[in-house]
Amino acid sequence: MGKWNWDNARLYFPKTLQWFLNGCLITLAVILSILLIREIIEFFKILLISGGSDYKVFLANILLFFLYFEFITMIVKYFKEEYHFPLRYFIYIGITAMVRLIIVEHDHPIDTLIYSLVILILIISYFIINITPLERPKTSLLFGKKPPLN
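Now predict its structure.
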């Protein structure tokens, strides 16, 4: 009987989890694609059957369509950027979700104000992300690394 090799376990465990995660994300992308197609069918039903008279439902469905679209785009970006979710896509999704919530649930003015403040915070966060450099500094005060002397 062979001895358990911890080096092999440390090598294969992250790869196994990465494959599992990739499979789950592909499954999620397929489900979201089906839901996206269902929303397109709902658009035609609203336009043809009801004549587009209920603009609130139509607008809410458009924003729901964009939420599905953004999630699918985020999954595509995850694979294109070598297993990394860009933070800005989460912010896009949050802004779209808040706008949809304001359109659908606008009965209480205080709630609408709070949703608007959330959108403002997300926009400020997006601005901060855009002005910060993409590269992380080589030194860290937290870990005590010293900068190289030139």
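The mean pLDDT is 82.
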